[in-house]
Amino acid sequence: CLAIEATKILAETFKVNEDDIRQGLAIAPLVARYERINDNIIIDGAHNPEAIENLINTILDTETKPVHVLFAAFRDKNHSAMLTLLSKDIASITLTTFDHKRARTQDEYFLYLEEYPFYEDYHLAIKELQEKYPEDIILITGSLAFAGVARKYLLGK
């Protein structure tokens, strides 16, 4: 949205039409925004209830296989609302954490630990989800920062 608005502001100086904007957006996808890493892993940095709701709508519109979520969020985000939204249409949810001072820890998911498994090590969680659900979709979400570290891990960068 910011790129589109910036283009509109600069339209008098730079001659760009709507087709140019669409073409530019098509060849420069956003990292960790519904990014398909391989056949069955999708990473999306949705980190608030509104973004999670949009993500669920997109995944339900585009995917036919069951979806299993690996979720990590920051302490200051509304994880309760996000998990409630996810639980409606998702096959399973697994909670985790990652190395960041704002990342929610196992103790901070205490209300959900009976309902969802928790992995201290997200690497192990990804590996086990892939082994358990090789034909299904694994969605990594809950934080843009978590999406970034998981993406880096999965792509080996």
Total helical segments: 6
Mean pLDDT: 92
Q: Whole-number radius of gyration?
A: 17 Å
Q: Strand-and-helix sequence, N→C?
A: HHEEHEHEEHEH
- How many strands? 6
Residue stretches low in confidence (pLDDT < 50, at least 5 long) are none
The percentage helix is: 40-55%
Strand order across the largest sheet: 1-2-6-3-4-5
Query: Largest sheet, if any?
Result: 6 strands, mixed
Described by the principal axes of the CA atoms, the overall outline is globular
Share of β-strand residues: 5-15%
End-to-end distance, in Å?
A: 28 Å
Class derived from helix and strand content: alpha/beta
Please give a structural write-up.
By secondary structure, this protein is an alpha/beta fold. Helix content is 42%, strand content 14%. The chain is built from six helices and six strands. It has helices spanning 2-9, 18-27, 49-62, 79-89, 122-132, 144-155, and strands at residues 35-36, 41-43, 67-71, 92-96, 118-119, 137-141. A six-stranded mixed beta sheet has the order 1-2-6-3-4-5, with helices on both faces. A hairpin with a 4-residue loop joins strand 1 (35-36) and strand 2 (41-43). Helix 3 runs parallel beside helix 4. It is globular.
Main attributes of the structure:
157 residues; alpha/beta; six-stranded mixed beta sheet; 14% strand; globular
Explain briefly what this protein structure is:
The protein has 6 helices and 6 strands; from the N terminus they run H-H-E-E-H-E-H-E-E-H-E-H. The chain has helices at 2-9, 18-27, 49-62, 79-89, 122-132, 144-155, and strands spanning 35-36, 41-43, 67-71, 92-96, 118-119, 137-141.
